[in-house]
Amino acid sequence: MSSDDLTELSLKLNMEEKNETELEQIEMELLLNGIHQYYGYDFRNYAVPSLRRRIWHHVYAEGLTTISALQNKVLHERDCFERLIFSLSIPVTEMFRDPQAFLTFRQKVIPLLRTYPYIRIWHAGCSTGEEVYSMAIMLHEEGLYDKARIYATDMNSRSLQQAKEGVFDIKKMKQYTKNYLEAGGTRSFSEYYTAKYNSVIFHPFLKKNMIFAEHNLATDRSFNEFNVIFCRNVMIYFNDELRDHVHGLFHESLSHFGILVLGAKESIHFTSFSEAYEALDRSEKIYRKIK
Predict the structure, then answer these.
(1) Which of 156, 160, 152, 153 is nearest to 134 (CA)?
(2) How does DSSP assign 184-231, residue by residue?
(3) Which pLDDT belongs to residue 165?
(4) Which of 234, 237, 11 is nearest to 123 (CA)?
């Protein structure tokens, strides 16, 4: 094959690859616009690489071959839509996840909360609720739970239902116990749950001051004023526009001197609200609203 033939073949392959990429982008936009218009869920400003991987994974999981075929099924079959939402909303969490963050919260934020007559805490994007129960346990041990309300929200109804039930896999308790102790736990972790078969159920007193509700950070508005907002490892999946929108929502929802807790790979910097906070602990991404 001559060099001219190789050049022509290379150009042809590049053009086909470009066409496939453009077609994929169009299909993704149509899918996301359809979901937004028909169901009211907005994924259009999620980070593209992660979103693309999850969409294709779900295409294959549904036994399909194209994103367009997935769009058709999602818009005509509610069950398919709910399976897709469960996949896209990334329900990944654990109790006392990143124990140092919880230890730092216990050391630096709990003393501030002691001065409040009433405490409202919002766990935004709570997934299946592990961090919500972690917070309840910490507040209980610090003698603050009776004057606290924990609002746990997520866009994923299946995850919320599991969070409400407070039932978790017993195989995870070894790791959760380790996390609890590293996070400054003061009791035996097993005091907080009852084991039954292959699961554990957390004791009802931990749920008495919890309120669970569906809330979409991309489309829903502020619904209360809070002293603390926990939103950890959620916004890493958002693009800059959606991330800034959510920070605006949190700023509106926090009381003066309210506390914002982000995930290890997240930051208030490079957002429109960076000057509105001071760092209580920069390494653990704990900030206090000052403006």
Answers:
(1) 152
(2) T--S-GGGGEEEETTEEEE-GGGGTTEEEEE--TTT----S-EEEEEE
(3) 94
(4) 234
Beta pairing partners, 261? 230, 286
Compute CA distances 61 → 39, 70, 107, 136, 255, whole Å.
21, 10, 45, 36, 44
Read off the tokens for 141.
């041990």
Q: Model confidence over 201-214: pLDDT tens digits?
A: 999 999 999 999 99
What CATH class does 99-289 carry? alpha beta
Three-state SS at 257: strand
Number of H helices, E strands in the chain: 10, 10
Among positive and negative, which fits the CA dihedral 205, 167, 94, 172?
A: positive
Answer for the pair 51, 31: CB distance below 8 angstroms, yes or no.
Answer: no
Q: Which helix (H) or strand (E) holds 168?
A: strand 167-169
pTM of the model: 0.84
Domain locations in the chain?
3-88, 99-289
